[in-house]
Amino acid sequence: MGLGSTLLLAPLHAREPETVPGWHDDATSRLEALALLQSLNAELLSHPSATLTLERWCGAHHLAPEAKVIAERVQGEDKPLPADAREQLQIGPDEPVRYRRVQLACGGHVLSEADNWYVPARLTDAMNHELDTTDTPFGKVVQPLHFRRQTLSAELLWSPLPPGWENQPTLPASAQAMLTLPHHVLQHRAVLFDQSNRPFSLVVESYTAQVLAFTPPASHRP
Question: InterPro entries from the entry (predicted)?
Fold first, then answer.
């Protein structure tokens, strides 16, 4: 699965930096945070459904009593279709495209905020009805299409360690404070294709600092 354009879409609203309980601003925690974000990134890149990947992540890290991801729709004005989207979706200038924005949450943690532009003519009537009337995650609704995912970009929006840290004699000193993270830490841009190799959805997924909202590995050591 190759990476193409690294274009990133700006988040809908700017967010203030936030802290995740339990994560101290020290070298060990920063290394662990970087390793975990890279692991999540690899999991997302190797599976077609971000929703199911987040459910596995939620369960493995005990983010909620039940590892179930719920899509909470964000109602409001539609976000404009990106300039290159029609070419990526292989549709003409007059083909209808629908927009859906959701927050994917596990327990009380919003793990991802996703912008999704999809071609309703390439889905079944039942799928379109479910997308219009429920909060069911998009990936679960379109599972019968046995879709594949082509990632266009995958970017860490925040690095716990400064550039070139691996060439320094020591890691950054502890700030004796809690680790501060931006609201979004990782972003993917991808196109979904059905079994006939027709693209039907362009999605931009912005993963939040809440993916690290569990007890850090260092806290388990004596």
Answer: Chorismate_lyase_/UTRA_dom_sf
